[in-house]
Amino acid sequence: MAVVAAMAVCKIKIVKYLSVLVILMTIFNYALASTETSAKINSKEKKLSEEERKRLEKIQQHKKLLKRIVQHTEEIPGLLTSKKISPQEIPNPHWKKDNCISCHAQTAGKASRDNLRNKTSDSSCSHCHIRELDHNYIHPVDIRPSRTRISTIKTSMRQEINKTGGKVTCSTCHDISLQCKMENTQRHENPLFLRAGPYSHRYDLCTQCHQEDSYQRFNPHEHVNDRGEIIEAKCITCHDGEIEVLKNAKNIDQVSFHIKTDLNEMCWGCHKWKPHPGGSFNFFKSGKAPNHLVKPSEEIIEQINKTLKEKSVLMPLEPETGKVFCATCHNPHAKNVIKNTAAAKGAESKSKLRSKKVCDNCHIM
């Protein structure tokens, strides 16, 4: 009996020792796993922090680039072509005290027409206001008006034309020297430093040179003459390429444009007022509307395709980016210009909207 009792006691002790051993092994394994997990986390955090460091360095380098090109605007066309900067990132040197150096070889107080970085003011302007961003049809430069025409031009414009060898230049309409006088109140009243401005309407600037009773501003949207013929010269306002190709195109992917980066720039050259996608709806409490000029979600694209199928209304997206742009909702063409019936909708409607309830074409209301 004593032996049996002793064996029972030993068995109990062994079970206790084994239990303790199991507990110790569990603790050890947990500690080991925690250490490995911690090491993985630290490695991941280190990797993330390295990526974050590189991202911040890239941002800083980009900021330095934007700061440098204020004084080296001649680099801008190349940077745009290589897509190192976007058109929206081109720095605006106007009305800024320390930015005379953008166009002149001298700083404030010494800058003049004689020390321009380029031979002419037009070549200085073109570094930022290149063809890809601005419309030549707003007004051509480097043309020589006839003596008869010059004699009818208002004094301030005529004097400037005489200074530039009888040619129309950027400075014919823009009095660049206005911005050099920082105390000048026209900074707010005449932000584009229009010569002899400010004007209550752009038309008033035009009549400084053009006769008011006979002047008719060019309208690129009137594509068809009284005989129903397409006015080909109007097409090349926005498009490049062969006219016949444009005439026979059935969708936006088959045509090309002068603007290569942001097709909205074609519209904003004249339509500066942007109360909706580019600005704010007045019925939003915050005063800010959602930005529509982005690549739509899959849900929106599905609704756009549904609109095309059920309503026969095409809502085109920007070919290069797939983003919504002005012509997604507005048809810029005249009636009978577009061959594709779905793409031609809205040509004669108010504000040239592609349909009455245009929001429904993309949004499920």
What is the helix/strand order? Answer: HHHHHHHHHEHEHHHH
| Overall 3D shape | flat
- Major sheet size, sense and barrel closure: 2 strands, antiparallel
> How many β-strand stretches?
2
Secondary structural class:
mainly alpha
* Beta-strand percentage range: under 5%
Cα distance spanning the termini: 90 Å
Q: Which strand order do you get reading across the main beta sheet?
A: 1-2
Number of helices: 14
Low-pLDDT ranges: 278-285
How many domains, as an integer?
Answer: 3
Radius of gyration: 33 Å
Helix fraction bin: 25-40%
Mean pLDDT value: 79
Explained architecture:
- The chain is mostly helical and 365 residues long.
- The chain has 3 domains: 58-134, no CATH class; 137-218, no CATH class; 258-361, no CATH class.
- It is 39% helix and 1% strand.
- It has helices spanning 2-68, 76-81, 121-126, 147-152, 155-163, 170-173, 186-189, 202-206, 232-235, 243-248, 264-268, 298-311, 326-329, 341-344; strands at residues 239-240, 256-257.
- The longest helix has 67 residues, at 2-68.
- The chain is flat.
- It starts with a helix and ends in a 21-residue tail after the last helix.
- The model is unreliable at 278-285 (pLDDT under 50).
